[in-house]
Design a protein that fits this description.
4-stranded antiparallel β-sheet; 29 strands
Length: 435
Amino acid sequence: MKHTRLLVVFLFVLFLPLSWYKMYSDSSKEESVYQSYLKNAREKAELQILKEATQDYQAALALHNSSEIQLELAQMYYDNRRYDIYEALCNQTINDYPYEIDAYERLAQYYYDLSSYSDVLSIRETINKRELKSTLINDLYQSIKYSYSYNGTYKVSELSNFHSGYARIRTQEGKIGYITESGQRAVNYIYDEGSIISNYGIAGITTSEGESYIIDYFGDKVNADPQKRKITYIGTINDPYFPVVLDNNYYVSDYSFNLSNTSYDYIGAFTSGRAAAKKGTEWFFIDGNGNRISDKTYEDIILDEGGIAFCRSRSFVKIKDHYIMIDFDENQIGTQVFENAINFVQSNGPTSVKVNGKWGFINDTGDIVLEFQYEDARPFSRGLAGVKGADGWNYIDESGNIVIPGPFQEVRDFSATGTSFVKQEDVWRMIRLYD
């Protein structure tokens, strides 16, 4: 029995080198065939015999698949101006090797050269999700970060920023309507007055016959005063309460058109249960019942185009001929006073204020973040703000660098999705950032 075991061991040791030799021999033969296919493929590629070169490349890849050879095949088609196949092969390499960066970089550069910036941004988003790093793609992104396309032109007398995806437009004939961020008309230009479309997706409008009611973003009538009183104005409906005008007086209304007992000379839009109001020469804040919130009065309260006084719990009020910034409880933020100011917008960024005849920027704690140097300025939205210099309006980033040069005659603020308006040669143009 012992001798049998020794014989088995002996035979194993004897044949082990033979097995390794066969494996090595097979491997060596396969490598030789692989190299032969590559050699033939490259020779035919150089002669631009694409079909046969492709067959040899595919035979080589069947033996040893790699992203390097897949991209070499793709490059052959690029060099021969078969860009559609080049694009398809790069995408195939990404599918086969999702954590190797080369194919992403080639495809990103290809799209960049075509000015197909949205595709470059899509690739960047993909590699970020897969936690891949690429200096090239990052550099491409930085160079197109503030590139934009035109989405339409509008020769109108007035237009607003985008709110909840819609901009209010007043035609040269004086009629109000609404458009979407894609440039499509959402509501026809048929109204004499109209509030901005709120986050509820509704707006108050007034017809040429003097009738006021509430529409949705399709232009359909969704609510009206059941008592059919002669309401001549409905303001922005940003809260359960909103302002209406009856007999030339402003009242607070709820959605059932129950009106407050107290009227004012003016009431703005509500946010979080409060709005700016005016009686005589005094401004103050009221609640949803139409009652004054405190005994504090002001010479003025800064409102945005929707009549809103508070944004991000900050408002600007005028005391002793100067504006100060206050919080929701009407406490002053910081010690700085301003000649003028514009409210913050919803996105997290500084707003513009005026000191000594020049505009600069502060944050919501009152700190100065960009010095007072501009002829005029808009608040920051989506990391960009319009500023006016001697040559006109441009957009800057939060470091003060001009990143979208004009000059433009006028500008609006960017929406959360990167859409704005600029005015050139007396025509408004919608622009949309690729990013």
